[in-house]
Amino acid sequence: MNFDNIEQVFENDNFKEIIDNLHDEIMVFDNNYTLVYINKASYRHYGVSPESMIGKKFQSFDGTYWGQSTLPIVYKTKKMVARKQITKLGADVLTVSVPIFDENGDIKYVAMSVNDIDSINKLSHQQCEFNEVGITHKNLVDSDVNLIYQSDQMREITSLCKKISKVKSPCLILGETGTGKSLLAKYIHSKSDRRDKPFMNINCASISHNLIESELFGYCKGAFSGANKEGKKGLIELANGGTLFLDEISEIPIALQAKLLQVIQDEEFIPIGGQKSIRVDIRVIAATNCNLLQMVDLGTFRRDLYFRLNVFEIEIPSLRERKEDVLALTYYYINLFNKAYKRNHTISNEAIKIIGSYSWPGNIRELSHTIEKLVVLVEDIEITAQHIPKHLYVYEKPKTTINTDNKSLDEMKEELEKQIIIKTYNKYKNSVKVAQELKISQPKAYRLIKKYIDNELNK
Ligand SMILES: Nc1ncnc2c1ncn2[C@@H]1O[C@H](COP(=O)(O)OP(=O)(O)OP(=O)(O)O)[C@@H](O)[C@H]1O
């Protein structure tokens, strides 16, 4: 075979198909640092298709898709180099890079084979410079916060967060449950000059209303009966110099909202039972999955606090609005749980398709729990469609047929509604899921189920 041209190497389609589907990753760079080939292992290691990587320069991947690469060393030493790395999606790999020379002895291509370390039994070190570098996730993601994404929406959000992190103004993060609001708050903190100072987190929904005040503001000696005799510092004081993250801010009692607003504005507060005010330097980030503006209109959230908090407002899209991230996160969690549970699972294309088409109402939290269960419970190496929980299969809207003879429009509408409710309820047996599927409120779904199904049952 003539190796003069990389195209010719792959002239035979069968041969290309074989390499495309090898479990090990194969990559080829030309002498201009351009990626000319990568096989489908790119999905597993980086969560993206080969097509989206081919043709791009090495510099656009290095440090983001993997840690420090062997490529520059191969160009420099003209020798084969092997190195352990961790890919962006957390796969432990061993990369072996081999130079391919032209007739003048110059490097024409660098071919890399990237093997998952778990599947390597033995590597011959002969004729090979073995260069082992312990790379942690720190080198691979933007910071020590493992924020995994491929979508343009998240790329824009992270670049906005980097800018926001440089200032002290409050920030409000919105998004459905499990979309990563807390993680993004940590990301902003980790990108800021405050990163070495505390990140204090309070979930306003998980603490009873009368305790939130003492948790946040602390109290002085003998402030109230049952309190710690020595008094207690509140989270605001503990966050001094750093970031205070108020999760589920919508749950903060209205009576406390004015006091919170004052701390954010004046950067000083008086602990419960105290005389003197304490000055603090804090950056406040708040998050909610509620419609705060609607709460403002209803009078359950202070307008001035809302406008103080949303100097910067970031809305994280749901996972179903950023399908590219589902793929990346799926591989990320397979790698993560494989390591945690000492498994070696792969996933079939069909299973990936099902995961990609599901709507993930619980977002990334639901996805991670689903993958964790699969990694633990599936006994075969490959996770296939048959292992995927049935509720993840995309539900096709029920086909309905109605008898229109002698019926008024209202009667026909009611008949149609009845069929849809019965079929959807039979599928899910749960009014929350019926509501999600039919895009109606849960109380409405419950009422319709009662109307059509309970009545049927009672007949
Ligand atoms: N982009 C991401 N990359 C990796 N993991 C993520 C990402 N986004 C979220 N997660 C993970 O998903 C889980 C849920 O994220 P998080 O708690 O930040 O969501 P949330 O929006 O604050 O949820 P809630 O509204 O219920 O408090 C966490 O385990 C988090 O680490």
How do the helices and strands line up, and which of them pair or pack?
Layout: H1 6-9, H2 13-20, E1 25-30, E2 35-38, H3 41-46, H4 50-53, H5 71-77, E3 81-86, E4 92-101, E5 107-116, E6 129-130, H6 137-140, H7 152-165, E7 171-174, H8 181-191, E8 199-203, H9 209-217, E9 218-219, E10 232-233, H10 235-238, E11 243-247, H11 254-266, E12 268-269, E13 278-279, E14 283-288, H12 292-298, H13 303-309, E15 312-315, H14 323-340, E16 346-347, H15 349-357, H16 363-377, E17 382-383, H17 409-428, H18 431-438, H19 442-458
Parallel strand pairs: 3-6, 7-14, 7-15, 8-11, 11-14, 16-17
Antiparallel strand pairs: 1-2, 1-5, 3-4, 4-5, 9-10, 12-13
List keywords for this structure.
single chain; 459 residues; alpha/beta; Beta-Lactamase; Rossmann fold; Helicase, Ruva Protein, domain 3; 4 domains; 6-stranded mixed sheet; 5-stranded parallel sheet; 19 helices; 17 strands; 16% strand; binds adenosine-5'-triphosphate; PAS domain S-box-containing protein
Describe what this molecule looks like in 3D.
- This protein has 459 residues and is an alpha/beta fold.
- The chain has 4 domains: 135 residues, 2-Layer Sandwich (Beta-Lactamase); 164 residues, Rossmann fold (3-Layer(aba) Sandwich), CATH 3.40.50.300; 74 residues, Orthogonal Bundle (Helicase, Ruva Protein, domain 3), CATH 1.10.8; 50 residues.
- The chain is 40% helix and 16% strand.
- The protein has 19 helices and 17 strands.
- The strands form 5 sheets. The chain has a 6-stranded mixed sheet. Strands 8-11-14-7-15 form a 5-stranded parallel sheet. A two-stranded antiparallel sheet has the order 9-10.
- Helix 18 crosses helix 19.
- The chain starts with 5 loop residues before the first helix and ends with a helix.
- 30% of the residues are buried.
- About 5% of the residues have low confidence.
- The site of adenosine-5'-triphosphate (ATP) has 18 residues, from helix 8 and helix 16.
- Adenosine-5'-triphosphate binds next to helix 8 and helix 16.
- Keywords: ATP-binding, DNA-binding, Nucleotide-binding, Transcription, Transcription regulation.
- It comes from Serpentinicella alkaliphila.
